[in-house]
Amino acid sequence: LPKGLREEWKQRLGVTPREFFRALFDTTKVKPGATTVSVDRDGGGIRSLDLEIDLSCPTTGKTIGHMDRMLSFPEDSPPEAYHRLFDLNRGAQGKGISKDLLANSIKLYEQAGIQRVGLMAALSVGGYAWAKYGFQPKPGRETEELFVTIGDRLSQLRGVPQPVRNVVKRLLEKGDPKAIWAISDLDGV
User: Fold this and answer.
1) CB 185 within 8 A of CB 154
2) How far apart are CA 166 and CA 89, in angstroms?
3) Confidence (pTM)
4) How far apart are CA 77 and CA 120, in angstroms?
5) 55 or 94, which is more confident?
6) In 3D, which of 165, 169, 175, 171 has the Cα closest to residue 144?
7) What is the DSSP string of 54-122?
8) What whole-number distance in Å separates Cα of residue 116 and Cα of residue 105?
9) What would the pLDDT profile of 13-43 be if each residue is shown by its tens digit?
10) Which end of the chain, C or N, has fewer beta carbons within 10 A?
11) In the chain, count of helices (H) and strands (E)?
């Protein structure tokens, strides 16, 4: 990055770009591969950063996934991050990679004063994983749609004990977005 932009980055995020990427990846089982950084600036400095990062296996160097993060610093509201994409090849899933990257991201966000993290989760893997990390759906239509999907899928699952089914149904009936946390923690689902 050009020197002026590196200085704005450090001013906005509290660390240099090199320190940012080191902190994001140092404790993970992946390394950054091809990376695109798009920056929106105005007279006050960086307004947003879009980070598109290929995730590479440290031993083979092969791309095993991709992540896309938007960091926004609006003048009239608190800074926020939006996780637009996180995708891992099947062979890389279940190894704690997303957990480590999320934990490292949150530390960096706190340092930068980012107070809100949003995401769009697919209902395949991401649809259940994000709740384990403390995310919840938006109240209203988003929660209603998610809870209908959960109810439909629960009715199709075999081997779920009836007491667990009853608990899930009661949680869904309440309509509270935070119920997703309790559902994601249940054994047997």
Assistant:
1) no
2) 35
3) 0.80
4) 21
5) 55
6) 175
7) EEE-TTT--EEEEEEEEEE--SSS--EEEEEEEEE-GGGTTSSHHHHHHHHHHHHHHHHT--EEEE---
8) 12
9) 999 999 999 999 999 999 999 999 999 998 8
10) N
11) 7, 5
